[in-house]
Amino acid sequence: MMETTLHISRLNLFYGDFQALKDVDMVVERQKITALIGPSGCGKSTLLRTLNRMNDLIPGVKITGQVLLDDADIYAAKDVCALRKKVGMVFQRPNPFPLSIWDNVAFGLRVAGLRNKARVAEIVEHSLRGAWLWENVQNKLEHSALELPLDQQQRLCVARLLSVEPEVILMDEPCSALDPIATAKIEELMLELKKKYTIAIVTHNMQQAARISDYSGYMLLGEMIEFGVTSQIFTNPKDKRTQDYISGRYG
Q1: β-sheet with 61-69: strand ranges across
Q2: Distance, CA of 21 to CA of 223 (rounded, Å)
Q3: What pLDDT score was predicted for residue 177?
Q4: Rounded to the nearest 5°, which phi and psi values hold at 138?
Q5: What distance separates the 2 farthest-apart alpha carbons in the chain?
Q6: Could you read off the pLDDT of 87-101 as tens digits, one per residue?
Q7: pLDDT beyond 80 at 171
Q8: Where do the domains of the chain lie, and which CATH numbers do they carry?
Q9: Closest CA to 109 of 94, 131, 127
């Protein structure tokens, strides 16, 4: 068994009186890709956002249960910014800042107070290489990030994360705005990134989950119906509800 990075136990989340997550248990293994699948509105993205406390920003949210990051309860931590440096998020649509390509990647370094220009330059290049973007942008680092094609914008968002050396990368349907060719590039990048990082991804694309993930969790109406090794979930699910979803009879 790989060393666990995130351990979620009896996690409940309420938006006011509405319960969006119900006693969710799962683990996210180190340097593996864990996919969350299920129909729209089942709680996948809500669960993903609990892993770096993004739901804290929503008024009226109440959370019970436990999320351990390397044995420390993230909901007991006072420094949420430090948590989000360790557990970064890539969103559904690329969200580069309206700045240059360079400044996008350097942004987190400057916030952290790094002023050594040579060191910043080294990290920017390393991060862009890590996101497989350096060859595309090395001669136009001062250009606006908004000029990049969508798949390169998404990779730039990954590079922006890599610059602050996260432990976990959360991806909320990172390919939903991309065409199949661009999607294949992002999937290939994720497989490369898991050699160093731990990844949890929400996807509506079951073929994508089957292609790239090591573990999968099927969610329905806020419950984790089944969680396990992806190959087992897709070929021999234990729960009929999982089987119905995988086979297209539901959702």
Answers
A1: 18-29, 4-15, 61-69, 72-73
A2: 6
A3: 84
A4: -60, -25
A5: 57
A6: 999 998 899 999 999
A7: yes
A8: 4-95+166-246 (3.40.50.300)
A9: 127
Residues in CB range of 166: below 8 A, 6 or more apart: 85, 86, 87, 88, 197
Q: CA 138 from chain center: how many Å?
A: 26
What integer is the mean pLDDT of 245-250?
82
Closest by Cα among 107, 86, 82, 83 to 95: 107
DSSP single-letter state for residue 145: G
Q: Using DSSP, state whether 172 is helix, strand or coil.
A: strand
CA-CA distance, 112 to 99, in Å (whole number)?
A: 18
Both tokens of residue 32?
Answer: 């593996």
Using CA atoms, how far apart are residues 213 and 32, in angstroms rounded to an integer? 7
Residue whose structure tokens are 């970064």: 88
